[in-house]
Amino acid sequence: MKDGKGKIIASGGLVGILAALLVKFGNPVNMGICVACFFRDIAGGLGLHRAAVVQYLRPEVPGFILGAFGMAKAKGEFKPRGGSSPLLRFILGFFLMIGALVFLGCPLRMILRLANGDLNALLGLFGYVAGIWVGIQFLKQGFSLGKSIKQPAVSGYTMPVFGVAILLLLLAAPAFIFFSESGPGSMAAPILLALGAGLAVGAVLQRTRLCTAGGIRDIILIKDYHYLWGLIGIFVFALIGNLLFNFETFKIGFTDQPIAHNDHLWNFLGMALAGIAAALLGGCPLRQSILAGEGDTDAAVTILGLTAGAAFAHNFGLAASPAGATLNGKVAVVIGIIVVLAIGYGVVKSVAQKASEGKAKGGISANV
User: Where are the membrane-spanning stretches (predicted)?
Assistant: First the structure.
């Protein structure tokens, strides 16, 4: 495992096997780890939405952040930074979440669903790849949300403190925190196991930089397959884990899959929206959580967008259910695709204008 390929496969394998174990010990089937779903549950637990079946302060999320924070501090890589297009990042994070909740899962859960036989996730995978391909077209034309700059140390500690606060609220369980009594939000692995899994994933992925969006982007853009091996590791080890620990729930097919629907068009379009947003943001929801633990306030703003998107989705009936995508959700996905494409086009146009102005000034200076 000293070579790069071995390390990235092992890091993906850790995610996959831990996801299977979390299902074995209580997390929802096919949802051992789902970053979008977990932020959605946290939003519900904090009362930001009132969908009673998805309210729980998932300890895995603080684990991702604090695991990455601890590893970054140990390796001297904790660097408070940010300030690049925060409003655009918030909007992109918001619509990434809308797309994920119409599909019913983040890109990581998409892989985990496939590893338990849910073929509906194939439509999500095709959509995610298509969305990333669209995002790459903007990247090729110079799309950039700008350079992050050094921030005060207190800014970098914001998300680790948030993680600690969520854990304290989970343990104290004050009356103003909501806990589901039925549905996915009521299904949870023991707190210490869930937190430990989150810490391990956060620490390891801080080192390997594994990202679903980054892996697909690098294949298409520069023919680099390094991160693909990590994604394969997630799938293979989750598959092995499910066959070993969760065989009673393993089922290959499109119908009667847990917390999923077979509305194929909207599985595709929901993840296409998530793919475009992730490509423009430079990372999937899990990668954003790891970056936030390293002190990246741009990633923290993206997480705020994800959380707001989750609350909005359940307050206004945008999130899908096993019955399929709602009309409101379909409209939101179409609007989201238009908005993220407009952001991509607007930024590229601005970059081109600046380049043109720079050339014009250079020409004037030369003439003078």
Answer: 87-110, 122-139, 160-179, 185-205, 226-245, 265-286, 298-319, 331-352
